[in-house]
Amino acid sequence: MKKVDIQNRIYEGFSLIEMLVTLVITGFVFLFVATTLTTLIRVSNISTAKTTVRNESEFILELIRRNVRNSNVGDVLVFDTLGRVYNGEVVVEIEAVTGFDDPLEAGTEGNEIHFRPNGYSRWICIGYFISSEDSEMGYILKSSSDDISSDHSTCFDPEDSNYQKYAIQLNSEEVDINSFRVKYIESTYENYIIVADMNAEPVYWYEGSGKLFNKEVNRQVVVSTEGLTW
């Protein structure tokens, strides 16, 4: 500390060098705190986004798991369909709808699975559709309908009254479903093993273009029907 005697008065103060050193040290402290807080906030946002994707993926696959398990093998059908997109409210036909003429054979992957739980008269349909506004955004929809054995294309038909009443969008606007593929494998005792694979990611990603964190979440469900044979 520097003392200055002016007219027999003593004044105390900081020298320029001391002030500069103090400012530099304070600046480093604030920079460290700000960097730490920014990193914590970014990691928290990333964790929250990925948790949302995981939860929604698990919900969709658990819906398949619980319902397919209670379905008879003759009432579990897989289709690979084209010609429809989702506009956020209804499924829209952009070209001739194909893929419903014949259900897929065992081991062949499709984007729709239709099943009727044992003891129920209604069919449940789960399908994967691309957004009509953003081709990189995907949705998984669930619908149900009365007996559609003669024409499974009506399950997601927007002109069908059942669609307007029972159709549900399973993933939120914060989760993008990149792909959804499902198939069945013939098992012992005339049962089916259903395998569904899903790849999803957050729509809002705070990591930028860096590769430090992988934003994609992959999930798979493997479930067997439990029909009894005598």
Keywords:
5-stranded antiparallel sheet; 230 residues; 2 helices; alpha+beta
Helix and strand layout, with pairings?
Elements: E1 2-6, E2 9-13, H1 16-69, E3 71-79, E4 82-86, E5 91-98, E6 112-117, E7 123-130, E8 138-145, H2 161-166, E9 168-169, E10 175-186, E11 192-202, E12 217-224
Would you mind describing this structure in some detail?
This protein has about 230 residues and is of the alpha+beta class. It has one domain (about 35-225). Helix content is about 25%, strand content about 40%. The protein has two helices and twelve strands. The chain has helices at about 15-70, 160-165; strands at about 1-5, 10-15, 70-80, 80-85, 90-100, 110-115, 125-130, 140-145, 170, 175-185, 190-200, 215-225. The longest helix is centred in the N-terminal third of the chain and has 54 residues, at about 15-70. The relative contact order is 0.16.
How many structural domains can be distinguished in the coordinates? Answer: 1
**Global mean pLDDT:** 85
Q: Give the termini separation.
A: 99 Å
Based on helices, strands and strand pairing, what is the structural class?
Answer: alpha+beta
The dominant shape is elongated
Helical percentage: 25-40%
Radius of gyration: 29 Å
Q: Order of SSEs, N→C?
A: EEHEEEEEEHEEEE
Low-confidence stretches: none
Q: Can you count the beta strands?
A: 12
Strand content: 35-45%
